[in-house]
Structure formats: C-alpha cells, structure tokens
Specification:
Blueprint: H1 2-9, H2 17-20, H3 26-43, E1 49-55, E2 60-65, E3 70-76, E4 82-84, E5 90-95, E6 98-103, E7 108-114, E8 120-121, E9 127-132, E10 135-140, E11 147-151, E12 157-163, E13 169-174, E14 178-184, E15 190-193, E16 197-198, E17 202-212, E18 218-226, E19 231-238, E20 245-252, E21 265-268, E22 273-278, E23 286-291, E24 300-306, E25 320-323, H4 327-346
Antiparallel strand pairs: 1-2, 1-25, 2-3, 4-5, 5-6, 6-7, 8-9, 9-10, 10-11, 12-13, 13-14, 14-15, 14-16, 17-18, 18-19, 19-20, 21-22, 22-23, 23-24
Helix pairs in contact: 3-4
Length: 350
C-alpha cells in the first residue's frame, strides 16, 4: 500500500482506469477515502524524492528512493544514458537512436523526438534545454521534437546549461585550457561572466541544475570531468533578478570516491542536491552523495552506494528526479477528507 501510494505521489499509477469507477458508490468511496487517510499517515514517514537512474549496461532505468535507499523497480530502455524528468506522465530519455518521449507511468517508449544533446529540463517539466558550441537549443517534450536554436555571442565552446525563469540562459564554456560560467540574455547576448578556472582541459560535460540556498539565493550547478580524470562541480550564485553572477566556486569530488573514467550527474533534492555516479571501489555500483543547501556549495550530509551500474562515457549522464510536496501535505489531504465524508453521510442517497 505504502509503495503504491508513494509511486502515485511521484507520478505513477495507483489504480487501473477500470477500477476507478468503483468508488462512485458512496460506501466504496468511504472505504477508499479512509485508505487514503491511512496511507497519508504512513507516507508522512516516507521519502518524497524519486530518482530515475539510467544504466546503459543493463538496458534499464532504475527507480530509486534516495532517502530510504531502496529500489522501486525499473523501466526497460535500450542503452539509456540520460533521463530528463521532473514528474507527470512523460519524460525524455536519451538512448539508442537519440532522444525519445517515454510514458513514465507504463515505461513505454512513445516516440522519437530528436538527436540534440540536452543537459537540463525546465521546472515546467516539458522544456528540454542544452548548449553546444556557440548555440543554445531547446525543445518541447510534448511537441513534435522540433528544436529551436539561439546563436550565442561568444567564441567559447559551451557544453552545458540551463534556461532561467526570466528567459536568460546560464552555461559553462571551455576555451581548451579553462572553464568559465557565462550568462546570456534570451536573444544570446552575454550579460554576465565570472571566475575563470584556468588549467582545465574538458574531457566530458554532463548535466546542469538550479537549486536555492537556505538564504533564498538561486545557484547554478554543473558537473564535468577533465582530462586528468578529475570530476569537478562548478557552482555559481545568481543575484535576485537572475541577470548577473555574484559568486562562484569549483570543487573536486574525486575524494568522494567516484569512478574517474565515468562522468556523474547532479539531481535536485528537497534540501540541496545529489551527486550520482559510478563508484570508484565497485564500478558496477552507484555512489550517491547528498549536499545540503547551506551556501552555494553545501555540506555533505549523506553518502552511500546502491547496486546499480551507472557507468557511462562520452555523453551527458543525467538522472531524472521527481520531488513531490512535503510529506505532511499528503497527510493533511487525507485528513481533510474526513469532514467531506461526514457531509456525504448526512446527504440522502438519490
């Protein structure tokens, strides 16, 4: 019951459509609603974060609860390397042949979308976004797969980025010997740059995310692997108008024992973010490290491994992440049905 209810809260099916009409009967509706109340109380103790970890070696996308550290099944997918998904019925999966729209409820590959190298998905859960060379590009997950492109006024090689809620774009750029963050307007003009990190030769870029610190500042994070096998995270704080950078930091995560021949992924958490990637000690296991939202980098608050093979090379590796409302809200929803049921009891049946 708890697992099914959790999957429902994360965007999974709880009841087949044919069974939903059973609860139009008042008595059956009361029984069902009471079950919701009980599930709500139980779910108050459950995790409301769900990862979708692609495994190119297993031809699967694993559902994983990072708080309780348990697997919740998998979806079959041919050579998946990236999952861009924030909840709802549909997500984008990059695998054999390019990007595909998946029905995340049933696990069915619905249709081919395009072959662009997207590095992030918008908060709306439908806008796919990426940067490559001197262009930014985007596509609607629910559309036909058409890709729109914006020329960027830079000579640097962009390799990962996000689109902000105000239309501005943030990404990382490489000139062969350094990495730097750049911010562009919606039409591609450079409006902010900060903190060149010299002596870095890019080997592989990965995904990018936005988080919010405990003080309310929006932070851009991106992860990449350099030519020495060092996995690094670039963190950039934004001003309140999200039209300029305020601070930045670069951190190495090799000390956290990630595989130096594979890239890792970032995933947003309720409190901070996760780093997910192949483990250095057991390459067929996935290492997961959680950072809190104190400052633009955060502090490690959890670290463990999961029996999932997430090795990948040569392409963006992205873990899909669904964050539901806080657990207490579902319990309140359940208890809120009680007075409604009392009113129904007083109303004579036709």
């Amino acid at each position: 019951m708890v697992q099914n209810a959790l999957l429902k809260r994360m965007g999974q099916k709880l009841l087949p459509p044919a069974q939903r009409t059973r609860y139009s009967n008042p008595m059956r509706f009361r029984v069902f609603a009471c079950a919701v109340v009980i599930a709500g109380v139980q779910l108050a103790q459950a995790s409301f974060e769900l990862m979708y970890i692609p495994s190119v070696n297993d031809d699967k996308i694993y559902r994983f609860d990072p708080a309780n550290q348990v697997s919740l099944g998998s979806i079959n997918s041919l050579s998946p390397t990236s999952v861009l998904y924030r909840g709802g019925q549909f997500g984008a999966v990059t695998g054999a042949g390019g990007n595909h729209r998946y029905d995340m409820y049933s696990g069915i590959n619905q249709t081919f979308l395009n072959s662009s190298n997207f590095s992030s998905i918008g908060e709306d859960g439908t806008t796919l976004f990426g940067m490559s060379g001197t262009n930014a590009f985007s596509s609607n997950l629910l559309g036909s797969g058409t890709v729109g492109s914006t020329a960027l006024s830079t000579t640097f090689n962009m390799f990962s980025g996000v689109r902000l809620s105000n239309g501005n774009m943030v990404g990382l750029a490489s000139d062969g010997t350094s990495i730097r963050p750049l911010m562009f307007s919606s039409v591609g003009a450079v409006i902010s740059s900060l903190s060149v990190h010299n002596g870095i030769t890019l080997a592989q870029g990965s995904n990018s995310i936005l988080t919010t610190t405990n003080s309310g500042q929006v932070v851009f994070h991106s992860i990449y692997r350099d030519s020495t096998g060092t996995l690094r995270m670039f963190h950039v704080g934004l001003n309140s108008a999200q039209n300029a950078f305020t601070s930045s930091a670069v951190t190495s995560i090799n000390s956290l024992t990630y595989n130096s021949t594979s890239v890792a992924s970032l995933a947003v958490a309720h409190n901070g973010y996760y780093v997910v990637g192949s483990d250095a000690s057991s390459v067929t296991s996935t290492r997961i490290t959680q950072f809190n939202n104190f400052g633009i980098v955060g502090t490690t608050i959890a670290a463990y491994t999961a029996p999932i093979d997430s090795r990948t090379t040569g392409t963006i590796f992205s873990v899909g992440m669904v964050i539901a409302p806080e657990p207490a809200s579902f319990a309140v929803l359940g208890f809120g049905l009680v007075p409604f049921l009392k009113r129904r009891k007083k109303t004579p049946s036709p």
